[in-house]
Amino acid sequence: MSTFPSIFPLLCLFLLFTTYSLVSGNKWTDRGLPDTEWTSWEDAKQGSKINKKPIMTLFTKSWCEESTKLKESLRASTRFLELCEYFNLVSVEEPEELMEEIGFFCTDGDYTPRAYFAHNTGYIEPRVTSGRTELKFLYLDAQSLEQTMEHIINNGFPTFEKEEL
Q1: What is the pLDDT of residues 3-47, one digit of tens each?
Q2: CA 90 to chain centre
Q3: Per residue, what are the HEC states of the chain?
Q4: For the segment 105-145, what is each residue's pLDDT rounded down to a tens digit?
């Protein structure tokens, strides 16, 4: 008796799932984000220890109109993709994805879209903001996010002043 007929259904299922995963993209591009190296917070922290790149964590919501606009703006920006090469990128769409660490990311409220930047040690740098006086981590378009990314690339993170220590 041949084993081929008994494994044929399993082979078909394997091919179906493999084809679906290749066609459907990944968790992050399925969210409408640009097709680049998005990862989880834990993977970004581990990667940063090795490649010494800072971490950018982007918070969006699928139902949020401003988040959708930001994603469209990021997908249309070639400059954003170029700048992404200098960061370990994290996407958070649901708070459950970072349940343990979520308190670190709600420094001035729970709003979207927002972005935080962290040192390659995983320390979230609260002094790197969008430049707004309120909703300091709110980014509404690619250009504003790119400006902050470029600043970090060119100048690094702010250093502590003597009176801050």
Answers
A1: 545 554 443 443 333 333 333 345 555 677 777 888 888 899 999
A2: 3
A3: CCCHHHHHHHHHHHHHHHHHHHHHCCCCHHHCCCCCCEECHHHHHHHHHHHCCCEEEEECCCCCHHHHHHHHHHHCCHHHHHHHCCCEEEEECCHHHHCCCHHHHCCCCCCCCEEEEECCCCCECCCCCCCCCCCCCECCCHHHHHHHHHHHHHHCCCCCCHHHC
A4: 666 777 889 999 999 888 889 899 999 999 999 999 999 99
